[in-house]
UniProtKB/TrEMBL annotation:
<dbReference type="InterPro" id="IPR002347">
    <property type="entry name" value="SDR_fam"/>
</dbReference>
<dbReference type="InterPro" id="IPR001753">
    <property type="entry name" value="Enoyl-CoA_hydra/iso"/>
</dbReference>
<comment type="pathway">
    <text>Lipid metabolism; fatty acid beta-oxidation.</text>
</comment>
<dbReference type="Pfam" id="PF02036">
    <property type="entry name" value="SCP2"/>
</dbReference>
<dbReference type="InterPro" id="IPR051935">
    <property type="entry name" value="HSDL2"/>
</dbReference>
<dbReference type="InterPro" id="IPR029045">
    <property type="entry name" value="ClpP/crotonase-like_dom_sf"/>
</dbReference>
<dbReference type="GO" id="GO:0005739">
    <property type="term" value="C:mitochondrion"/>
</dbReference>
<dbReference type="GO" id="GO:0005777">
    <property type="term" value="C:peroxisome"/>
</dbReference>
<keyword id="KW-0413">Isomerase</keyword>
<dbReference type="GO" id="GO:0006631">
    <property type="term" value="P:fatty acid metabolic process"/>
</dbReference>
<dbReference type="InterPro" id="IPR014748">
    <property type="entry name" value="Enoyl-CoA_hydra_C"/>
</dbReference>
<dbReference type="GO" id="GO:0016853">
    <property type="term" value="F:isomerase activity"/>
</dbReference>
<dbReference type="InterPro" id="IPR003033">
    <property type="entry name" value="SCP2_sterol-bd_dom"/>
</dbReference>
<comment type="similarity">
    <text>Belongs to the enoyl-CoA hydratase/isomerase family.</text>
</comment>
<dbReference type="InterPro" id="IPR036527">
    <property type="entry name" value="SCP2_sterol-bd_dom_sf"/>
</dbReference>
<dbReference type="InterPro" id="IPR036291">
    <property type="entry name" value="NAD(P)-bd_dom_sf"/>
</dbReference>
<protein>
    <recommendedName>
        <fullName>Hydroxysteroid dehydrogenase-like protein 2</fullName>
    </recommendedName>
</protein>
Length: 632
């Protein structure tokens, strides 16, 4: 269910927010799954010979962070599109930014240094994301014990334990060598030309070459010769000194060779292969005794995996072993919200209730603020049934009848919360009203309703809670926005994804994480979640298209078409596919849970009515009107 979440500051900036622009996928890196368990990452700036910009460094990090957590990925090939593998830094964009900072006399030397350090760190992180760096027994995952519960929590850095094979051709200069020295295996075509070029532009290489090359080749003299002179060297010399391990005749052959090797590696145990990378990288940077101690600690847990048993059984039976993927990271409850008080509007059902239950599992105090005090004829849930579920989940509940437009009921609910729980730590503004009509068809009465709930109600709740939030523990205001666009392109999923995303956002330090706009999937991917099948209405099925927010590739940079043409094009292009996709997910179980008939009106060149029957039989979808629909 892709709705948006806004995390607001605790001060007078509480009602400003920064909207991140929706854009198409960045084309500077091309990523594709070449074969089962093998991913191919291509530098894709052929017109600039794949030179690096700040955006490309950032995208390198985000791409390898995702591949590091992708259960399907076991090996990665890295190559470059076009005439060169990588010709270094983009002098116009990359160096231009550095020069502009250095030459800016309005910034003092100390502050310039801080800015430059941050820039260098960003560049280093783009390549370090390819490696696994191990310092003693500090791991990417640590086990924390809270309230006698063990759970995993990712540390704030991610690095890739999957083997990365560089397929190099033509030019590999400057940042290109920084990049390949972070890779595990390096293949090259016979026409390749290497150069550590940084001294020619007045700098020392600072993104990895000087730190990794001599450890790779084991020849300090040769490394210094190359770094001091910036001279070119070819494939034969690189092979002689151990920078690469194989030479191929052409660019296509080196890529094919790298993919074949990756496929072979991907057939092996992911526990064994990724553990081997971890141990090798640790051994590179530590003494033999330290490394032996590390591998003992490593294998005391890893030898308990099913891979060892499966491999041994296959060997005894003279069969080829088949190994399972890793399970992906999930948003586990950690207990960090124990005893904290959360006010949630619109929490009697749907997204608000799911967030309430997620926090209740930590032992939070949950104030359920909603209008539904008596059961609806068709829709399940009241503030009292939600309160019962919160208490069963492990939290404490306070149901309050609240109309967010009414000052008296808002004030009474806040005062009751403070009296019962001693304060307020978090406010979640979830109550909202929407309309799927376009501007011309939206009645002012409907607009006034949306404005009074979505804007005035949010302001009123925030204003009333703010004095107590200022005294709260890591206080947050989280606004769950109604849809930003009304194109009826995507149909929503169930609300668990919003609960997990809210949990992740509210866990952050409110002094550092504030004024943000976010989409649920983006939040969870940043937390390391890569398997989103559990959020689908039908577990195991892909996420269905969201009913409100268009996909990135279909989101225009500018709205050149009229509103009517946008809606018409969206409906004509997608409605049949969306209905078919939804029809495949209907089931008797879904009908039993919802028990209602829904009618949607889709506007465009011609009005279309869609009826989704989740009340009878196994459910059905039809393009027609229904006077007996329960929800319109």
């Amino acid at each position: 269910m892709h709705r948006s979440l806004t995390n607001l500051p605790r001060t007078s900036r509480a009602f400003s927010r920064f909207l991140s622009s929706s854009s198409s996928k960045n084309s500077e890196l091309e990523v594709q799954q070449d074969s089962p368990h093998v991913y191919h990452v291509k530098l894709n700036r052929p017109d600039r010979r794949n030179t690096f910009t700040m955006e490309l460094w950032k995208e390198m990090k985000s791409t390898f962070d995702r591949l590091a957590e992708e259960p399907e990925c076991r090996a990665i090939v890295l190559s470059g599109n076009g005439k060169s593998f990588c010709a270094g830094i983009d002098l116009q964009q990359g160096m231009g930014e550095l020069v502009s900072i250095v030459m800016n006399d309005d910034i003092d030397v100390g502050r310039k240094g801080r800015i430059l350090r941050r820039i260098i760190t960003t560049c280093q992180d783009g390549f370090t994301a390819i490696e696994v760096l191990v310092d003693g027994l500090v791991r990417r995952f640590c086990i924390l014990i809270i309230a006698k519960r063990a759970f995993f929590k990712p540390l704030p850095f991610k690095m890739c334990s999957k083997p990365v094979i560089a397929a190099i051709h033509s030019h590999c200069v400057g940042a290109g060598i920084d990049l390949i020295t972070a890779c595990d295996i390096r293949y090259a075509s016979s026409d390749v030309m290497f150069s550590i070029r940084e001294v020619d532009i007045g700098m020392a290489a600072d993104v990895g070459t000087l730190n990794r090359l001599q450890k790779i080749v084991g020849n300090d003299s040769w490394t210094r010769e190359l770094a001091f002179t910036a001279r070119n060297f070819g494939a034969d010399e690189a092979l002689k000194f151990g920078l690469i391990s194989r030479i191929f005749n052409t660019e296509s052959e080196v890529v094919e060779g790298a993919l074949a090797l990756a496929k072979r590696i991907a057939e092996k145990s992911p526990i064994g292969v990724q553990g081997t990378k971890e141990v090798l990288n640790h051994a590179r940077d530590h003494t033999i005794l330290e490394s032996l101690d590390f591998v003992k600690t490593w294998n005391m847990s890893q030898l308990q995996s099913t891979d060892l048993r499966n491999g041994a059984m296959a060997a005894m039976n003279k069969q080829k072993p088949v190994f399972e993927n890793f399970a992906c990271f999930n948003m586990f409850n950690t207990g960090k919200f124990f005893g904290r008080t959360v006010v949630i509007t619109g929490a009697s059902r749907g997204i608000g209730k799911e967030i309430a239950l997620k926090l209740a599992k930590d032992g939070a105090n949950v104030v359920i603020a909603a209008k539904t005090a008596t059961a609806h004829a068709k829709l399940p849930g009241t503030i009292y049934t939600a309160a019962e579920e919160v208490e069963k989940a492990g939290g404490k509940a306070l149901p309050c009848v609240v109309d967010v437009r009414d000052e008296a009921s808002v004030r009474a609910a806040v005062e009751s919360a403070v009296k019962k729980f001693g304060g307020i730590d978090i406010l979640i503004n979830n109550a909202s009203a929407i309309s799927l009509t376009n501007t011309e068809d939206t009645e002012m009465k409907r607009y006034d309703l949306m404005h009074s709930i979505n804007t005035r109600g949010t302001f009123l709740m925030s204003k009333t809670c703010l004095p107590y939030l200022k005294q709260g523990k890591n206080p947050h205001i989280l606004n769950i926005s109604p849809p930003l666009l009304m194109e009826p392109r995507w149909f929503s999923n169930h609300a668990d994804i919003m609960a997990d995303a809210a949990y992740a956002m509210l866990s952050k330090n409110s002094r550092e994480y504030t004024g943000n706009f976010a989409i649920d999937e983006e939040v969870l991917r940043a937390e390391g979640v890569v398997d989103f099948t559990k959020y689908a209405v039908d577990p195991g099925a892909p996420l269905t298209a969201d009913f409100f927010i268009p996909s990135a590739e279909n989101f225009p940079e500018t709205f050149s078409m009229s509103r009517e043409r946008q809606l018409s094009a969206a409906i004509d292009e997608d409605v049949a596919n969306v209905l078919k996709d939804m029809g495949n997910k209907l089931s008797k179980d879904l009908v039993d849970k919802l028990g209602a008939v829904f009618e949607f009106t889709l506007t465009g060149d011609k009005e279309r009515k869609i009826v989704i029957d989740l009340k009878n039989g196994n459910g059905s979808i039809a393009e027609k009107g229904d006077d007996k629909a329960d929800v319109k």
